Amino acid sequence: xxxxxxxxxxxxxxxxxxxxxxxxxxxxxxxxxxxxxxxxxxxxxxxxxxxxxxxxxxxxxxxxxxxxxxxxxxxxxxxxxxxxxxxxxxxxxxxxxxxxxxxxxxxxxxxxxxxxxxxxxxxxxxxxxxxxxxxxxxxxxxxxxxxxxxxxxxxxxxxxxxxxxxxxxxxxxxxxxxxxxxxxxxxxxxxxxxxxxxxxxxxx
Amino acid sequence: xxxxxxxxxxxxxxxxxxxxxxxxxxxxxxxxxxxxxxxxxxxxxxxxxxxxxxxxxxxxxxxxxxxxxxxxxxxxxxxxxxxxxxxxxxxxxxxxxxxxxxxxxxxxxxxxxxxxxxxxxxxxxxxxxxxxxxxxxxxxxxxxxxxxxxxxxxxxxxxxxxxxxxxxxxxxxxxxxxxxxxxxxxxxxxxxxxxxxxxxxxxxxxxxxxxxxxxxxxxxxxxxxxxxxxxxxxxxxxxxxxxxxxxxxxxxxxxxxxxxxxxxxxxxxxxxxxxxxxxxxxxxxxxxxxxxxxxxxxxxxxxxxxxxxxxxxxxxxxxxxxxxxxxxxxxxxxxxxxxxxxxxxxxxxxxxxxxxxxxxxxxxxxxxxxxxxxxxxxxxxxxxxxxxxxxxxxxxxxxxxxxxxxxxxxxxxxxxxxxxxxxxxxxxxxxxxxxxxxxxxxxxxxxxxxxxxxxxxxxxxxxxxxxxxxxxxxxxxxxxxxxxxxxxxxxxxxxxxxxxxxxxxxxxxxxxxxxxxxxxxxxxxxxxxxxxxxxxxxxxxxxxxxxxxxxxxxxxxxxxxxxxxxxxxxxxxxxxxxxxxxxxxxxxxxxxxxxxxxx
Lengths: 204, 599
Ligand code: HEM
Ligand SMILES: [Cu+2]
What we know:
Chain A is an all-alpha fold. Chain A contains five helices and no strands. In chain A, helix 2 runs antiparallel to helix 5 and helix 3 runs antiparallel to helix 4 (125-157). The longest helix of chain A is centred in the N-terminal third of the chain and has 34 residues, at 12-45. Chain B has a single domain, classed as Cytochrome c oxidase-like, subunit I domain (Cytochrome C Oxidase, Chain A, Up-down Bundle). Chain B contains 17 helices and two strands. The structure holds protoporphyrin IX containing FE and copper (II) ion.
């Protein structure tokens, strides 16, 4: 009983529209995660007796710089692919990836300076919340970096594709995956900027 | 831009080639990306868990009815958990915890919305499949993994989680089996399972929403969508926005347990020793939990709302009454549902002013709920009713929803709730309004769409036995619990307390009724599996057996992947054109007649 109706599969364009929406809704879901967790932080902070006062480690400013520049790099990579400058696009993607790794390292340095201030993970809840939120956010960055690696490898393998890149033509499917990845990457970086501002105003 | 489209077309051709693979047994039945098969996978897994969860409840009901008797069979079945034929107190708590978790998440969430969203969204919208069939498959396999992990937890030495389905800290926040065996690895597995479950459920929900927005066939405007699709879409939205709170709660709790943070723990003393946890608040966990927990009850009941709306209209051969009001009330329940969570926490010492806000929102939500009830009743009022099995279950649902909803209004008043909280009155409330009612919605759906799922009918006589056994049994189990409003829930035995022990006879009565419900459902189980293989087949003349207007019945009896062999159907009318144009049934793809006004 092989009754798959092959001739009627959905067009690629329609599929892409639907999948783009999936990403946007997923962003709403991730946003909720951070919204409820930062709300929990505020509720806990209202309990002043148990809330340590300390300044936010300044290396988190560096994280913010990495996040923003990495997003710019992504924007550039996507733009270049669209303009059929495939090699530049790949390089921009690569550099953005490096900036993503640098972001993670700077987060790690942030943890180290928290520890140096006498706030290890298991210390005061005020500090623990920073670790928790940064780790939860970092997990999203790692996810993005994995996807970036796959995209980059694919782009490298396809650089001589006779139908598309090799002949100077756009591949709509690869353009789409780059678009999805770019949107996601902007999103997680904006998320960091939100967390940074949130921390900045709540830890003085 | 023109260049982009040109290449888009060639990519399109490629896309087709990619899809040309023979279906093997493995891709057809196991790693299927066909939404219909995935729906059936959710249903089968849900049914499996329903029986596991049900059997667990029989075990603890036996303990409650006969706390001083011994049953050698229990020792045979449960081994060291029931030494000498008597369930140990620790295992009792594991039983209630697992029962709640399994029924709420695995059966009434995955088994209900998972089954019907998958099976029916593309079919009723006239779509080939979901927006992302691959993610859809992943959604099932995450659920399966969650199932496996929770199932495994029954076999670890210290037993499964036993701190309640609500998983409150501090009991569940400390990984010390000296306090509670179930707080050991059993609870870690619980958290793992829930996290997998949340990922799976989210993947599914993202897909459902995107499919509904993007993949409707020609003419299927939003105002022509069946109410069931509205309900399933809102269910998905609830899940997308509420489950992250449980994930956050679970993550923070696991940090406390494994890494030693103090998010939810403060100055805990065990056997005279002060533990290192300092400064946390267990109440924050409750807030996070119920921020999911309350929307979760609507995640469970919305699909049942939708199924019942369809079934009542089809079998009454009448247009659904107040279509717009139905959609609007679903929408307002969705929104208000996010602002009532603290009605589960009236006794936590919250400020009366805040309590009052939550009372007001809670009572407010009763209004759209009542609107729906009135509309269902008006839909069948003076209809040409066919008392088929799905119809019986749908009517039963309305009865149960009223009975259970009314007690919600009592509980929603904080002054009354302070007396009733954590008593059997609450158990009665949520089992009738959610437990039994949602099951009735699910069964109505199973009997209604079984012919479409398997191309065969279920046996009717057995269906009626199942219905009456469940309706009578369900009321007999949960109605008496209202009178136990002064008896605390989650006690292992009441024989030590004179005032509670007065209810001993009631407890025996309830337990016997619970066995009746199980018996009725064994009839269902036999009927279900027997009918898959040996039921009366659906024939070409009988392809639309209930005379429904919705599009799923316009597919072949055994639709393949892609659902319609030729063109997709075009929709001309809303789904409730029953008994118009001198015809009882006017399918959605039937063009309007000359001069006829579309709805
Ligand atoms: C008519 C509107 C409803 C109102 C006003 C209402 C109100 C309440 C209140 C105030 C409680 C807390 C009782 C306590 O713990 O002291 C409660 C518990 C509960 N309700 Fe409702 N409810 C309503 C409808 C529903 C529906 C439709 C469902 C599910 C489909 C539901 C499921 C539950 C559950 C699961 C619990 C208790 C969970 C637990 O403590 O283990 N309720 N309800
Ligand atoms: Cu509630």
